[in-house]
């Protein structure tokens, strides 16, 4: 047992859920413990009083995000936490994001910025960027932002969470969240 009362079984289960080696899950366990602590304190002091299971789930997701669990990891974790399919978990996270939009703003912008700053330039005839977008919320936000402009739409690569963006679309999205642009380089 460690300081938070988490034993080897907790570590093993979380490693399986996240698809990470057991040695790499300690920081996530610390964040989960912090989220649980905050949630319990708010419930005990009456600061938060959920009346439905939907509110409990939305609040639990919110506490996990407040504890700095990243969005892609949060979507996977929610599926296992509530023992529901990943598509249903993504909807739960979207509901929580809508409900707590103001509180999530900084975390969300950080997630979008992180995706954009890890883009890879593809020097081919189309001159595009390739990005790995594992969060359905980040993908939906990007699609919404692109549709509100006259910029070319994203291309779904059909391989995991990979998408491609034309240079002007990529630069526009970077400008919206203050992301450092990956330079376009010829190969």
Topology record:
Layout lengths: L7 H11 L7 H19 L8 H14 L4 H11 L4 H14 L1 H17 L2 E3 L5 E5 L3 H12 L7 E2 L5 E5 H11 L10
Antiparallel strand pairs: 1-2, 2-4, 3-4
Number of separate helices: 8
SSE sequence, one letter per element: HHHHHHEEHEEH
Average of per-residue pLDDT values: 87
Spatial strand sequence of the major β-sheet: 1-2-4-3
Domains, number: 2
Question: How does the helix and strand content classify structurally?
Answer: alpha+beta
Q: What best-fitting shape do the alpha-carbon axes yield? A: globular
Which runs of at least 5 residues are low in confidence (pLDDT < 50)? none
Major sheet attributes: 4 strands, antiparallel
| Strand content bin | 5-15%
| Strands, count | 4
Task: Name the descriptors.
8 helices; single chain; alpha+beta; 2 domains; 187 residues
What does this structure look like?
It comes from Catenulispora yoronensis. This is DUF222 domain-containing protein. The chain is of the alpha+beta class and 187 residues long. It has two domains: 8-99, no CATH class; 111-177. 58% of the residues lie in helices and 8% in strands. It is built from eight helices and four strands; from the N terminus they run H-H-H-H-H-H-E-E-H-E-E-H. The protein has helices spanning 8-18, 26-44, 53-66, 71-81, 86-99, 101-117, 136-147, 167-177, and strands at residues 120-122, 128-132, 155-156, 162-166. It has a four-stranded antiparallel β-sheet. Strand 3 (155-156) and strand 4 (162-166) form a beta hairpin. Helix 2 (26-44) packs across helix 3 (53-66). The longest helix is centred in the N-terminal third of the chain and has 19 residues, at 26-44. It is globular. The N and C termini lie far apart (51 Å). The model has no long low-confidence stretch (mean pLDDT 87).
């Amino acid at each position: 047992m460690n300081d938070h009362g988490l034993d080897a079984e907790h570590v093993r289960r979380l490693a399986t859920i996240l698809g990470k080696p057991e040695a790499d899950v300690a920081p996530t366990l610390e964040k989960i413990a912090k989220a649980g602590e905050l949630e319990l304190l708010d419930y005990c002091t009456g600061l938060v009083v959920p009346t439905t299971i939907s509110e409990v789930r939305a609040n639990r997701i919110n506490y996990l995000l407040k504890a700095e669990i990243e969005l892609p990891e949060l979507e996977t974790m929610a599926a296992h936490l509530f023992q529901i399919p990943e598509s249903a978990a993504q909807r739960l996270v979207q509901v929580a994001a809508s409900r707590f939009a103001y509180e999530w703003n900084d975390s969300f912008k950080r997630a979008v910025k992180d995706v954009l700053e890890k883009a890879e330039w593809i020097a081919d005839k189309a001159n595009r960027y390739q990005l790995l977008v594992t969060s359905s919320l980040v993908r939906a936000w990007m699609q919404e932002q692109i549709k509100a402009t006259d910029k070319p739409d994203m291309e779904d690569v059909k391989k995991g969470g990979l998408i491609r963006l034309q240079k002007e679309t990529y630069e526009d999205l970077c400008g919206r969240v203050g992301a450092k642009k990956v330079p376009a380089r010829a190969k």
